Amino acid sequence: MDFSISPELESTLDIVETFVAEELHPLEDHVVHGHWDVIQSELDKRRDRVKELGLWTPHLDEQWGGMGLSLVEFGHVAEALGRSPLGHYAFNCQAPDAGNMEILTEYGTDWQKERFLEPLLDGDTRSCFAMTEPDNAGSNPTMLDTTARRDGDEFVINGRKWFTSGADGADFAIVMAVTDPDAEDRYSRASQIIVPADADGFELERNISVMGESGSGYLSHGEVTFDDCRVPAENLLGPAEGGFAIAQERLGPGRIHHCMRWIGICERAFDLMCRRANQREVYPGSPLGDRQMVQEKIADSRADIDAARLMTLQAAWQIDRKGTRAARVDISKIKYFVAGVLQDVLDRAIQIHGALGVTDDTPLAFWYRHERGARIYDGPDEVHKRVVAKKSLKERASD
Ligand SMILES: Cc1cc2nc3c(=O)[nH]c(=O)nc-3n(C[C@H](O)[C@H](O)[C@H](O)COP(=O)(O)OP(=O)(O)OC[C@H]3O[C@@H](n4cnc5c(N)ncnc54)[C@H](O)[C@@H]3O)c2cc1C
User: What is the extent of the structural domain holding 385?
Assistant: First the structure.
């Protein structure tokens, strides 16, 4: 395995790190207080600057205006961007848009690319992905009640989704709906369909309050309904009943993106915990960092973050070489491992900050609230641990 960084990538990372520190950190105060709308115009200026620097949509191939990076290389960029809650958005590689861009480039028709993909690539629109339903266990995504019935040249969609992240203000949703309820294979029942936000029968019912915050715009999770919502049949994305196959493809690289972003968050939390441990005196002349129990938190965090990074880069390297399917177990392993590291490191950083840690005077509490979901979305820990355990048991079944 070779995770060495080319001189070109090294200088790109320098530029990204400087940009994040100088241009984005000063805006974070508004975000941690939930005032996304206040900084939208400032963020738009930063996004123009990212375009000028040639760092826009870094996850995509050059033909789509991206940087043509391998997944390992993009992983390093994602880590640098993860050091700010605004990093991925400023560079137009934020979830769920990044994944939606990828499936539109792969499966979109010419018309879909023109109508939905191009404005997304330009950063003029946002999108969302609506799969999870309040009345069904999202951990088993084949259990869906939302249907899309073909009626002439249209689909008629009925159902309710929630945790449709960023639905507020999105231009369109990619919706997972059952189009063939009788298919024997449960994974061949659903299709992905693009629903414009202004389609009749599509409604954003509410931004769900999460840990005391309903949020708005990009930083929100919507509950949406489809009530005899009609869209043209040409809005079908990819093959009919191919919804799960497409979702799987999207989730592989998507998990690398999330894990490397989480490692960026961990590094920022680590910087903050060390600074606080060096500066806060528990006795005159004796900083917190002199205490062994504080040192243990720092040492454990350092080792956890480094292990998480190596495991994630290894999974990215496998995907680069062999594709998502071959790297399935590695992807599951990092999903629960890195989400756990993230939670532990944030918790230790908060503890070392004392009361300051639970305030919004640092970004720690914001991340603690917003990233608890990391152990749930894109598959809860238990589902991924099952994949890893089953493989290990199978390999040793004849022992
Ligand atoms: C912050 C956040 C953002 C999200 N964004 C989106 C989005 O943009 N679009 C979208 O469609 N969805 C989104 N989701 C939804 C997410 O994908 C689901 O929450 C997830 O798939 C789990 O489904 P569930 O919530 O229905 O939990 P359930 O399926 O009801 O599971 C509940 C719990 O049961 C346990 N469990 C589940 N299965 C097993 C098992 N096999 N063995 C042992 N224990 C098990 C786990 O602890 C799990 O947390 C988001 C969720 C969060 C928290």
Answer: 244-395
For 282, list phi and psi in degrees, rounded to 5: -90, -30
Residue 148, H or E segment: strand 147-151
Could you identify the atom of ligand 1 that is nearest to the CA of residue 139?
Answer: 29
**pLDDT per residue over 13-51, tens digit each?**
999 999 999 999 999 998 888 778 888 889 999 999 999
Does residue 372 share a domain with residue 286?
yes
Task: Please give the structure tokens belonging to residue 51.
Answer: 């375009």
Pair (253, 386) in one structural domain: yes
Q: Is residue 108, in this structure, part of any structural domain at all?
A: no
- Ligand 1 centroid to Cα of residue 62, in Å, is 34
Q: Looking at residue 248, what is its pLDDT? A: 84
Distance in Å, CA 372 to ligand 1 centroid: 12
C-alpha 374 to ligand 1 mean position (Å): 10
* pLDDT at site 249: 80
Query: Looking at the structure, do residues 377 and 263 belong to the same domain, yes or no?
Result: yes
Provide the 10 A C-beta neighbour count for residue 310: 12
Using DSSP's 3-state secondary structure scheme, residue 192 falls into: strand
Task: Give ligand 1 pocket residues (Cβ under 6 A).
Answer: 96, 129-132, 137-139, 163-165, 221, 373, 376-377, 380, 382-383, 386
What are the strands, taking DSSP E only, across 233-283? 236-237, 281-283
Q: Whose CA is nearest to atom 16 of ligand 1?
A: 377
pLDDT along the chain (399 residues), means of 10: 87 97 94 83 95 96 96 97 97 97 96 98 97 96 95 98 98 98 95 98 98 92 98 97 90 92 98 98 96 98 98 96 93 98 98 97 96 96 97 92
In 3D space, the residue among 370, 373, 374, 366 whose CA is nearest the CA of residue 350 turns out to be: 366
Rounded to whole angstroms, the Cα distance separating 182 from 179 reads 9
CATH code for the domain in which residue 210 is found: 2.40.110.10
User: Which atom from ligand 1 is nearest to the alpha carbon of 161?
Assistant: 11
Q: How many domains does the chain have?
A: 3
Q: How far is the CA of 127 from the centre of ligand 1 (A)?
A: 20
